[in-house]
Amino acid sequence: MANSDVRAADTTDRDLIVRLAFGSMAAQTLRAAVRLRVVELMGDTPRQAARVAIDAGAEPQPMTRLLRALAGLGLLREHAPDSFSVTPAGALLDPGHPDSLTSFVGMFTEPAIVRAWEHLDNSVRTGDVAFDAVFGTDFFSHLAQHPTLSAQFNAAMSQAVSATAAALPYAFDFSRFTTVTDVGGGEGTLLAGVLSAHAGLTGVVFDTAQGLAEAPKTMARHGLNGRCSLIAGDFFRSVPEGSDLYLMKSVLHDWTDDQAVTILSQCRKALPPGGLVLIVEPVLPEVVDTGTEVDVTDGGVTYLSDLNMLVNVGGRERTRRDFEEVCHRAGLTLTSVTPLTDAAPFSLIEAVAR
C-alpha cells in the first residue's frame, strides 16, 4: 500500500471520530434552532440572516453563525453571503410542517435526557440506570412529577410514531381481526392510523392517565370517538380483555427482560383463541453489519437508542433471539418478523399463544 493511501485512510478515520465527537454539538444546534424558531421564521423564500435575527429577538452576527452551522448540517442553504433558505430536511424543524420533528428534537436534547448520558460509562460498568441516580427517581415517575415535560414527551412520541402510523395499516393484514388494543398507545396516533384505514375495526388505547392526556383530541380529530375507547391502567397488572389483537409499539424496549415478560404475560392472559400479539420495534441483527460506513441513519441510531434505554430507563433494544426468549417466557410463540420497510428500522413481530 502506498504511503498516500495510508494517509488517506488515516484522514478518513480521524474525520469519523471528529464528526462523532461533535455530535452533541450538532444536537444542541438543532435545539437552538427550534427554540429560536429559525425555520418557522424563515418561511419558504430566502431571507437575510439579519432579518431572521430581528424576528427571533437575537443578535445579527451570532444568528448568521447559527444559520451557517445549520447550512453546514444540510438543514439550510446559503445562496449568497448571509442569505439563506430552508432545505427539505430543515423544513421538519418547522412546527407547522405536517411531519414536523420539533417536539422530538426538543425532547431528545432536553437536559433531563442528556444529563444521564454523562454517566454512560458508569452504567456500562454497573448496569445501573444513570437517570435514577441523577434525578433520585425513575424516568416515568419524573415525568409524572413534571407535567410540562410529560406533555413534551407525549408530543415527541406522537411525532416519532407518525411514519409508523402511516405505514403500519398497509403492511399488516388487520382484516383478520375485530378489535385491537394498543398497549401503551399514548395519545393514540398509531391506533388512529390503523382505525382510519380499516373501517371494520374498533379499538382501545390503553395507557396511564398521563399517557392518555392528549388521546381524546387525537380521536376527535380523526372522527374516531365512536370506534375507540380510552382506558387508563397499569400494563404490569393487567390489560383490557375483549380484543383479538394486542398491539405494542416501542413499549418493550423501555423495560428489562423480566418487566417485558410481565407485560407480555398480561397480554397472553387476555388473548382469546386465535388472537395475536403484534410488537412493533427495531430488531437488532445478531452481528452488527455496517458495511463500509457507519450507518447513522438506521442501525447506528438503533444502537444509540439501545444505550439511551440503558442510561435513562433501564430497557434495551433486542435481537430476534431476545424477542423469542421473552415471548416464550410469557407463554407466547414468536411466529414471524417482518421489516416495516416504509418505517425503518422497525419490524413487525408476531406472537401467538403456545
Automatic annotation (TrEMBL):
Q: Which PROSITE patterns match?
A: SAM_OMT_II
Q: Does the keyword Methyltransferase apply?
A: yes
Q: Where is the O-methyltransferase C-terminal domain?
A: 117-332
Pfam families per UniProt = Dimerisation (PF08100), Methyltransf_2 (PF00891)
Say if the entry is tagged with keyword Repeat: no
Q: Which GO terms describe its molecular function?
A: methyltransferase activity
CDD domains according to UniProt: AdoMet_MTases (cd02440)
Q: Which Gene3D superfamilies would you find in this protein's record?
A: 1.10.287.1350, Vaccinia Virus protein VP39 (3.40.50.150), Winged helix-like DNA-binding domain superfamily/Winged helix DNA-binding domain (1.10.10.10)
Q: Which BP terms in the Gene Ontology apply to this protein?
A: methylation
Q: Which residues form the O-methyltransferase dimerisation domain?
A: 19-93
Task: State the UniProt keywords alphabetically.
Answer: Methyltransferase, S-adenosyl-L-methionine, Transferase
PANTHER family documented for this protein: O-METHYLTRANSFERASE CICE, PUTATIVE (AFU_ORTHOLOGUE AFUA_4G14580)-RELATED
Protein known as: Methyltransferase
